[in-house]
Amino acid sequence: MKTEEYSLREKKHAKTKIAIMNAFMGKLAQNRFDDISIREICRDVEVAEGTFFNYFPEKIDVVRYFLNLTSSKMIWKAKREVRDGKYLHLIDAVFRQLSKEWSNSNLAYQIFLALLLQGERPKKMAISALEKGLAFPGCAGIEETPSLSLGEWFKECAVSAQKNGELPPGTDVDDVIVSLATIMCGTLLVTRFSDSDSRGYHYMRQLKALWRGLGVAEFQGK
Questions:
Q1: CA-derived radius of gyration, the chain
Q2: Which of the residues 23, 82, 133, 217 could staple to 143 if both were Cys, CB 3.0 to 4.6 A apart?
């Protein structure tokens, strides 16, 4: 991406925010969420603790930011894997990317547990085009990818799939979203002590069963 259109202050702000996130998630890949010290994160990134809270008012906000940022990357990759007009295949492609992102089972489990203990749905975090471009420099054009949660993205795809005839008329889109969330979270928990290949296999297996059960034509008889 072209960063010259941004001021030095804007670039420093984005780079610091991403550095804090990377340091935090690196710790979370090996430790429990509650055991992560903000002081240690700030020492590693070389920022003051006050700076941390300027970016992330709560510790859980780092996890929320990570989820929103990586959702953009998974959506970006899925769009390059699947041709336009195949929305159920786009959902499948995001799940394949999700399996790769969750290759560290402790990271996936700690994220899930931390959010569960919050007792509320994950909040959406504001992410600028600059932040997306700097976080994923190898993903050309990712700054144009919409900042959506996976749940929002799945709903958009499901609505579009129904409009173009991929999903049968009368399909309850909200039920589809609940089923996708169940597959996403349930498979993560069940396969926590398995390898990433097993997780990817079960994602695809459960999605195929869902599409078949909903009466999607191309999955009938498979």
A1: 19
A2: 133
pTM of the predicted structure, to 2 decimals: 0.89
Which residues of the chain fall short of a pLDDT of 50?
A: none
Tens digits of per-residue pLDDT, 22-67? 999 999 999 999 999 999 999 999 999 999 999 999 999 999 999 9
Taking the domains of the chain in order of start, what are their residue ranges? 8-219
Other CB atoms within 10 Å distance of the CB of residue 12: 11
For residues 46 and 51, give the distance between their C-alpha atoms in angstroms, rounded to a whole number.
10
**Which phi-psi region, left, alpha or beta, contains residue 139 (left: φ > 0; alpha: ψ -120 to 50)?**
beta
Q: Which residue has the tokens 């991406």?
A: 1
Question: So what's the architecture of 8-219 in CATH?
Answer: Orthogonal Bundle (1.10)
